[in-house]
Design goal:
CATH architecture: 2-Layer Sandwich
Low-confidence stretches: none
Mean pLDDT: 88
Radius of gyration: 14 Å
Amino acid sequence: MKEINIQKIAHLYSIKGISLLPLVGTERNGFYRHDAIRLINIMLTEVVPVIGIDIFLLKNNILTFTDTYDNWYCDRIMNESFSKYTLRSCANAKRYIEDYNPKGAIPVFDITIFDFKFL
């Protein structure tokens, strides 16, 4: 199976992200709220669970990793079907993104999706 990741999917759908390379040391992108929600909707359609979201904050044109432990993750429940896991994880991720409102900063969401190499 081909490796998929959020960067490849974002590129495929012409969704531009913000490089997180200076902060995390790898070729990852973060996404503004509207693009993050769009990606979650794509994951739901493609039946790809969202397993985590890291939060970065853009304040005064400087992007920083949040030190408030505002990150989110979603583990698969024992005996949960893959499709139900996808529905639950995408719904929870979308709600988390919609509800996250830091004061005085713009949130940037780094989305981690299920890695099919481990199926």
